[in-house]
């Protein structure tokens, strides 16, 4: 049994791998070898930085087609993290507009620059730090995690998914209700960093490695 963290040159690869190793006795590998990715029982698609770079590196390493095929066939569980979530949408406003993988219908939009909190204090972009996640629907990956638990975020763009049934978690930042957890079939993806989110994040990873869609 192997969990493969897909290495296309972007993302918190080692932090994610270490967090997974903390919650499972299964073999965790960081790899860009198509044979090892196809042979793994579960996959993690991380991402960090600008989305144009992430999509570009996925194409440069010739892994985009492989990931798209795995998503289409839904042959094994896949967890997207941060930009790894954003890439699964149809398009992003970042970098002047980027076409993404299109597994989920919807877009990735930038937080407005003039948002204010309830006390009329201006909110910073990027949205950085701890925030609560409202569980929008039940999902096996929420098992043992309290509703409105805190998770750790770092992002200037947020997912705006089209289909309510695929939205499993939201976070309020100013006027924006960001879709920070989305899922479809054997794929689940989150904007927050579970590897940096203490007990709740580790529990979500533990749920992922035991999840049978």
Task: Give the SSE map.
Blueprint: E1 2-6, H1 13-23, E2 27-31, H2 34-39, E3 42-45, H3 51-60, H4 64-73, E4 78-81, H5 83-86, E5 91-92, E6 98-99, E7 106-110, E8 127-135, E9 149-155, E10 157-161, E11 167-173, E12 176-184, E13 187-190, H6 198-210
Parallel strand pairs: 1-2, 1-3, 3-4, 4-13, 5-7
Antiparallel strand pairs: 5-6, 7-10, 8-9, 8-11, 11-12, 12-13
Number of helical segments with 4 or more residues: 6
Which H/E pattern describes the elements?
Answer: EHEHEHHEHEEEEEEEEEH
Shape: globular
What is the radius of gyration?
16 Å
Average pLDDT score:
95
Strand elements, count: 13
Assembly type of the chains comes to single chain
Unreliable spans: none
Distance from first to last alpha carbon: 16 Å
* Strand portion: 25-35%
Describe this structure in words.
The strands form two sheets. A nine-stranded mixed beta sheet has the order 2-1-3-4-13-12-11-8-9. It is α/β, with parallel strands linked by helices and 213 residues long. The two termini are 16 Å apart. It has six helices and 13 strands. It has helices spanning 13-23, 34-39, 51-60, 64-73, 83-86, 198-210; strands spanning 2-6, 27-31, 42-45, 78-81, 91-92, 98-99, 106-110, 127-135, 149-155, 157-161, 167-173, 176-184, 187-190. Helix 1 (13-23) crosses helix 6.
């Amino acid at each position: 049994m192997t969990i493969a963290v897909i290495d296309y040159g972007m993302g918190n690869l080692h932090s994610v791998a270490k967090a997974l190793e903390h919650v499972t006795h299964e073999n965790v590998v960081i790899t860009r070898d198509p044979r090892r990715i196809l042979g793994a029982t579960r996959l993690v698609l991380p991402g960090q930085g600008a989305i144009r770079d992430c999509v570009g590196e996925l194409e440069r390493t010739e892994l985009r087609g492989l990931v798209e095929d795995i998503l289409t066939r839904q042959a094994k569980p896949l967890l997207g993290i941060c930009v790894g979530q954003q890439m699964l949408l149809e398009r992003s406003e970042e970098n002047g507009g980027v076409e993404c993988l299109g597994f989920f219908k919807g877009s990735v939009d930038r937080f407005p620059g003039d948002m204010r909190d309830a006390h009329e204090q201006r909110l910073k972009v990027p949205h950085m730090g701890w925030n609560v996640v409202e569980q929008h629907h039940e999902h096996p990956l929420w098992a043992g995690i309290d509703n409105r638990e805190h998770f750790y975020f770092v992002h200037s763009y947020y997912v705006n998914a089209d289909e309510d049934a695929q939205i499993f978690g939201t976070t309020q930042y100013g006027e924006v209700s960001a879709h920070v957890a989305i899922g479809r079939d054997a794929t689940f993806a989150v904007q927050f960093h579970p590897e940096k989110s203490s007990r709740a994040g580790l529990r979500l990873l533990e749920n992922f490695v035991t999840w049978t869609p």
